């Protein structure tokens, strides 16, 4: 059997039963792809259902405010996805229909080649091969390719190979794309792949050459920086102060408590030196509770809200986990 035929046979027996695969609605499919760009299926599933329940159509999502979308997205991280999702919903509404060609789908904010191919093939049956982390891994191992996947040469090579393997008959393009992604997620996993029970074992170069743990190859280019933050949760007369983070930095558009360099006198330590890892930064944060006798004067970009209204504001997971939730549960002791 050919590579594609073997994958399709495996997929019929082992493919994941996911709710966005039970529809051809491009909105539902697009939403799932955006959520799963940097998120595991298990976590993303709940968010997809919440978004579909609250905004069942692209028109409903476009009519929401950015704050509402960010709040619903809270906990997923990579918040630019949420902002792009909201912007793209407005693009689709302005267009009058969901774009149904690869060229038009790529014009949506936050949609790259992979996402366009996934939406195009699954929703519209377009013959476009997807190439994501799972596909890179499967192809690199099976064909024994050691070209780094994060180089221009590597991206072109793998995209060309993926497209050449796509079944010619269009109805199979969707199934094949989903098959190779599931195969990478379930069978040909990054760690401890199930090689001994793999239908492609005999033709897999990496397995025959004992190179499974060496492929795919990725150049190390990311420089991780450390950053130290001091957050003060101010509690005065049932209110607290928040600030919306601006563009050009982490957590754009999200809200945070008072961020300062010097701890005010009388502030009580809640959490010290909490480590929070992002893609390109490691954050170390100290958290304090301050209950001043008088309302302090803060920079003009801070607003005062009732503590009971905190749930209406989208905050970074770091803030929610180490200030908001402990305070709401009455856990004021320091660590």
List the helices and strands and how they pair.
Blueprint: H1 3-14, H2 26-35, H3 41-54, H4 58-63, H5 66-73, H6 80-95, H7 102-106, H8 113-124, H9 133-143, H10 152-165, H11 171-187, H12 205-208, E1 225-234, E2 239-244, E3 255-256, E4 258-259, E5 268-277, E6 281-290, E7 302-306, H13 317-328
Parallel strand pairs: 1-6
Antiparallel strand pairs: 1-4, 2-3, 2-7, 5-6
Helix pairs in contact: 1-11, 2-3, 2-8, 8-11, 9-11
Record keyword descriptors for this entry:
single chain, 7 strands, three-stranded antiparallel beta sheet, alpha+beta, four-stranded mixed beta sheet
Please characterize this protein's 3D structure.
The chain is of the alpha+beta class. Helix content is about 40%, strand content about 15%. The protein has helices spanning about 5-15, 25-35, 40-55, 60-65, 65-75, 80-95, 100-105, 115-125, 135-145, 150-165, 170-185, 205-210, 315-330, and strands spanning about 225-235, 240-245, 255, 260, 270-275, 280-290, 300-305. The strands form 2 sheets. Strands 4-1-6-5 form a 4-stranded mixed sheet, with helices on one face. Helix 2 packs across helix 3 and helix 2 runs antiparallel to helix 8. The model has no long low-confidence stretch (mean pLDDT about 95).
**Largest sheet features:** 4 strands, mixed
Count of helical segments? 13
Low-confidence runs: none
Q: Which class do the helix and strand fractions yield?
A: alpha+beta
Q: What is the straight-line distance between the termini?
A: 60 Å
**Radius of gyration from CA coordinates:** 24 Å
Task: Spell out the helices and strands N to C.
Answer: HHHHHHHHHHHHEEEEEEEH
Oligomer: single chain
- Strand arrangement, major sheet: 4-1-6-5
Write down the overall geometry: globular
């Amino acid at each position: 059997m050919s590579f594609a035929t073997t994958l399709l046979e495996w997929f019929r027996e082992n493919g994941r039963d996911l709710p966005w695969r039970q529809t051809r609605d491009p909105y539902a499919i697009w939403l799932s792809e955006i959520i799963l760009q940097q998120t595991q299926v298990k976590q993303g599933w709940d968010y997809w259902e919440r978004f579909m329940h609250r905004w069942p159509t692209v028109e409903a999502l476009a009519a929401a405010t950015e704050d509402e979308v960010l709040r619903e997205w809270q906990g997923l991280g990579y918040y630019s996805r949420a902002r792009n999702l909201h912007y793209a919903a407005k693009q689709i509404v302005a267009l009058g229909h969901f774009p149904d060609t690869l060229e038009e789908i790529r014009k949506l904010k936050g949609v790259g080649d992979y996402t366009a191919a996934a939406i195009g093939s699954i929703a519209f049956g377009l013959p476009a091969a997807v190439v994501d982390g799972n596909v890179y891994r499967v192809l690199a191992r099976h064909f024994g390719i050691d070209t780094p996947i994060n180089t221009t040469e590597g991206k072109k090579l793998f995209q060309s190979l993926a497209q050449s393997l796509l079944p010619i008959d269009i109805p199979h393009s969707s199934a094949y794309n989903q098959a190779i992604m599931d195969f990478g997620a379930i069978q040909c996993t990054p760690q401890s792949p199930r090689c001994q029970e793999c239908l492609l074992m005999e033709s897999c170069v990496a397995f025959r050459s004992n190179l499974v743990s060496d492929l795919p190859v990725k150049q190390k280019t990311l420089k991780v920086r450390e950053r130290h933050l001091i957050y003060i949760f101010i509690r005065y007369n049932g209110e607290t102060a928040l600030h919306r983070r601006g563009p050009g930095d982490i957590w754009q558009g999200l809200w945070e408590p008072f961020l300062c360099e010097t701890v005010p006198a009388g502030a009580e330590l809640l959490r010290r030196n909490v480590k929070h890892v992002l893609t390109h930064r490691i954050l170390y944060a100290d958290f304090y509770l301050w209950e001043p006798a008088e309302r302090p004067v803060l920079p003009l970009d801070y607003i005062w809200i009732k503590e009971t209204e905190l749930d209406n504001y989208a905050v970074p997971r770091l803030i929610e986990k180490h200030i908001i939730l402990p305070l709401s549960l009455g856990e004021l002791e320091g660590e």
